[in-house]
Fold:
Amino acid sequence: MTLLYFAWVRQKIGKGEEQLTPEAGDVAQLIAHLKSLGPNYADAFADLSRIRVAVNQRHAGLDARIGPEDEIAFFPPVTGG
Structure:
């Protein structure tokens, strides 16, 4: 699957995109796997209230099902004025 990281999530992880094939059936399992990859990932995903997720360019929750061909994006909440 293709993982995309935006804004401060990208800064903490140190890359904007990567390809992974984790054993994850949903977004929550994927995040648990990512946290195990090292301190930079653990830091980026420490507070899930500060992260939004999109699966195949559609906003999704932690329970969203994912597969090996999906694109998952992680980004901070958008605010505006």
Q: What stands out?
A: The mean pLDDT is 95. The CA atoms of residues 10 and 55 lie 17 Å apart. Residues 27-35 form the longest helix (9 residues).
